Amino acid sequence: MTKIVGVRFKSFGRIYDFDSGAFVLRYGDRVIVETEQGLCFGMVAVLPALCDKRLSGRPLKKVFRLANEKDFKQREKNLEKEKSAQAFCIKCINELKLKMNLFVVESSFDGNKLTFFFTAEGRVDFRQLVKNLVNQFGVRIEMRQVGIRNQAKMSGGVGRCGRAICCSLFMNTFEPVSIRMAKDQNLSLNPTKISGLCGRLMCCLTYEHETYRKLKKRFPRIGKIVKTASGQGKVVRHNVIRDRLTIHMDEGQEIELPLDDIIKEQERK
């Protein structure tokens, strides 16, 4: 049996699973954990629980120790370095007239590496920029170009639903999103209403799309002529959630009827 604890590295970031070993951990405890990038500083977001199987195809990394006063001081030092590195890098970008948008800087816990995340429309020659950064900070420098969705995921924020955006909260990968998904769910096609903070279509459009597709298979297509108890008419709208549809009658008025009534009328033919 493995004791698994959920650790978060940012205030609203994704929660990662670690092997808590023999440590007795409480919610909110600060811990030092092993990651692929080395030791990292995190907070216990999910209490330890016994699990009889691995949650992934490989062994979980372990909680190295509880954070001590020295670790807290190192964390504060890293945060100050990240702020100064971001300000200096933006200054250099402007001086070198590089077409890139730097949005966050992350320091390794030991302070020996700085990673600069940016977005750009194309490839950027940042060789001189890296030289300036190395001369200024004397540590390893990594420039990492990411997409606009990754920027939103790393920066975080609150969506129009009032909750922290999904990509920063729990999503591991980005699924393809299309305007067809909004159409199938009868949503407004106004880009400002179906776009997320990143400016792309909201990821949550994918959550119920398959359910809508299955439900809509029972409905007659838009524009089809159907027979009702009141006469003949053309289907103009679907209300999948309420299982109803709107029909434009030959006389000119519109009526809303339950789908089952239409199906029964068709079976009588």
Describe the fold and architecture.
The protein is an alpha+beta fold and 269 residues long. Helix content is 29%, strand content 30%. The chain contains eight helices and twelve strands. The chain has helices at 69-96, 127-137, 148-155, 166-169, 179-184, 191-194, 209-216, 259-267; strands at residues 2-8, 15-19, 30-35, 38-51, 63-66, 101-107, 113-119, 140-145, 225-228, 231-239, 244-249, 254-258. Strands 2-1-4-3-5 form a five-stranded antiparallel β-sheet, with no helix packed on it. It has a four-stranded antiparallel β-sheet with strand order 9-10-11-12, covered by helices on one side. Helix 1 (69-96) runs antiparallel to helix 2. The protein is elongated and about 80 Å long. 17% of the residues are buried.
Give the percentage of residues in beta strands: 25-35%
CATH topology of the largest domain: GMP Synthetase, Chain A, domain 3
Please identify, by name, the CATH architecture of the largest domain: 2-Layer Sandwich
Main pleated-sheet profile: 5 strands, antiparallel
Tally of helical runs? 8
**How confident is the prediction overall: mean pLDDT?**
88
Count of discrete domains = 4
Write down the Rg: 27 Å
CATH class of the largest domain: Alpha Beta
Q: Structural class of the helices, strands and pairings?
A: alpha+beta
Order of helices and strands: EEEEEHEEHEHHHHHEEEEH
* Tally of DSSP β-strands: 12
Overall helicity: 25-40%
Order of strands across the main sheet: 2-1-4-3-5
C-alpha geometry: elongated
Low-pLDDT residue spans:
none
Tell me the span between the first and last alpha carbons. Answer: 63 Å
